[in-house]
Design brief:
Helix content is 63%, strand content 1%. The protein contains 18 helices and 2 strands. The chain is globular and about 75 Å long. The two termini are 49 Å apart.
């Protein structure tokens, strides 16, 4: 049993209360470990505010979601009307609903920027592999949460978007039709589907999401934050003061809490401006078709997911029968290069060639729709392996060869183009562009073990580069 800490009977009441709590719960210890005595690098820039903003938006979504659930009816006959009731009759219901819908898009904006910061500064590299994996799991969980919540308004785009995405599972060989039936709970998207998605959106997925967020933060604070220079300020050889604190670090509180409060203030100004003046955001945050009740007998002219799914939706649409031959050629070329360049025994070389031939035959035998689903899912799953794909001798983009910056810029532009094509109706030109973009997306990661080693990196300093301002 732990020893109780005693304080003077004449101590102030607040100090006595804190001591009483500390003897039963490590409140002061948590405050010191994660705020006042958690040292972060002194040169963190504005790219490092998006983690705190993600946490803020998560809180907004949970709080507004609780109030929406009080009035929402998860019934196919009543769902759309209940949303209209929230918008028109519930006091401040319109504000809560618009905060929740805008928060969904804001969540993906800050998470995409947060992940991009990790990409350019090498925050996934040793010793932060687990931090990155937890982050990717949060992203995957967030996509599931957003997709399930998208069905709940029971508008035209909600209904038909769910119909299209759920039907994709039926393309999986052998188990596909049964899996799609299990997800829908019926032979068509209906009341059973709505109840399933509601329960997952409100209870199951948020619990997993919160657990992953806690694990992400604990793992981060265990190894310490990265910085734009990629210098480990807490490494055994790093300079420290007499108390053992890193000389290149500063306490997270009050320095970075003030830093984050400023970013939160700017973010909330932009967030409230959208909520009050443009909650639909031109049809990107709330599609106009979703203000029409779901009608199984009337299909919208163009069915597309919300903007944050569209880059992956473009990759799904890019996989056609013609594209299959390109993918087969990529598999064969990859196998030949692996055999030619790799120092492998003859038996392993034969196994690689045989596996490539078998995979090519399987790709021809199975419908392209299935491989589109594989590509769409693989575009997210491949992010989990990033710590082991990057072989660059330095972490940060600051000290990599200059052409790496242009390559990352092209990657971002390509991702944005894929996102734009995903909201557009299918067209021959759009199809070709999305196919090229999909190949570049996967090539960026799959060829990273090769291209990340090319070029001569700049000298990484022993101490962080920091100029007070």
């Amino acid at each position: 049993m732990a020893q109780f800490k005693e304080i003077s009977p004449n101590a102030p009441a607040g100090e006595k209360l804190l001591n009483w709590v500390d003897n039963r719960f490590p409140a002061s210890k948590l405050y010191k470990d994660h705020l006042s005595e958690y040292y972060a690098s002194k040169n963190l820039n504005f790219w490092y505010v998006f983690g705190a903003l993600s946490l803020l938006v998560l809180v907004i979504q949970i709080v507004t979601g609780i109030f929406l659930v009080m009035h929402y009816k998860p019934d196919a006959a009543l769902a759309f009307a209940s949303v209209e009731y929230i918008m028109r009759d519930v006091p401040w219901g319109w504000l809560i609903r618009y905060m929740h819908s805008t928060g969904a898009s804001a969540f993906f904006i800050v998470v995409y920027l947060h992940m991009f910061r990790g990409l350019i500064y090498g925050s996934y590299r040793k010793p932060r592999e687990l931090v990155w994996i937890f982050g990717c799991a949060i992203f995957l969980c967030l996509m599931a949460e957003a997709f399930m919540g998208y069905l709940l308004p029971w508008g035209q785009m909600s209904y038909w978007g769910a119909q299209v995405i759920v039907n994709l599972f039926s393309a999986i060989p052998f188990i596909g039709p049964d899996l799609a039936l299990l997800i829908r709970g019926d032979f068509v998207v209906g009341d059973a589907t709505l109840n399933r998605f509601f329960s997952f959106h409100v209870i199951a997925v948020p619990l997993v999401l919160l657990g992953l967020v806690v694990a992400h933060i604990i793992a981060l604070h265990e190894v310490g934050s990265n910085n734009p220079d990629g210098v480990e300020i807490k490494a055994p050889g790093a300079p420290k003061d007499a108390q053992g604190h890193p000389l290149d670090g500063i306490p997270f509180h009050p320095y970075y809490t003030v830093h984050d409060i400023l970013s939160v203030s700017v973010f909330l100004m932009a967030f409230t401006a959208i909520v009050f003046f443009a909650p639909e955001f031109g049809g990107y945050f709330l599609e106009y078709n979703n203000f029409i009740p779901a009608d199984p007998l009337t299909t919208p002219l163009h069915i597309a997911p919300v903007w944050y799914f569209t880059p992956f939706y473009s990759m799904l649409r890019a996989i056609t029968s013609e594209m299959m031959y390109v993918l087969i050629a990529c598999v064969v070329i990859g196998a030949v290069l692996a055999v030619a360049k790799g120092k492998l025994p003859t038996l392993f070389k034969s196994a690689v060639i045989g596996s490539a031939v078998a995979l090519a035959a399987m790709m021809l035998a199975i419908d392209a729709k299935f491989w589109g689903v594989v590509v769409m899912g693989g575009a997210v799953i491949i992010l989990f392996f990033l710590p082991w794909l990057d072989n660059s001798p330095v972490k940060s983009i600051r000290y990599r060869p200059d052409w790496h910056k242009y390559l990352y810029a092209v990657f971002v532009i390509n991702f944005l183009i894929l996102g734009y094509l995903g909201v557009q109706p299918p067209s021959p030109i759009g199809e070709r562009v999305s196919q090229v973009g999909s190949l570049f997306y996967f090539g960026f990661f799959l060829l990273m073990p090769w291209w990340s080693k090319l070029g001569t990196p700049k000298q990484v300093p022993d101490r962080v580069v920091f100029t007070p301002h």
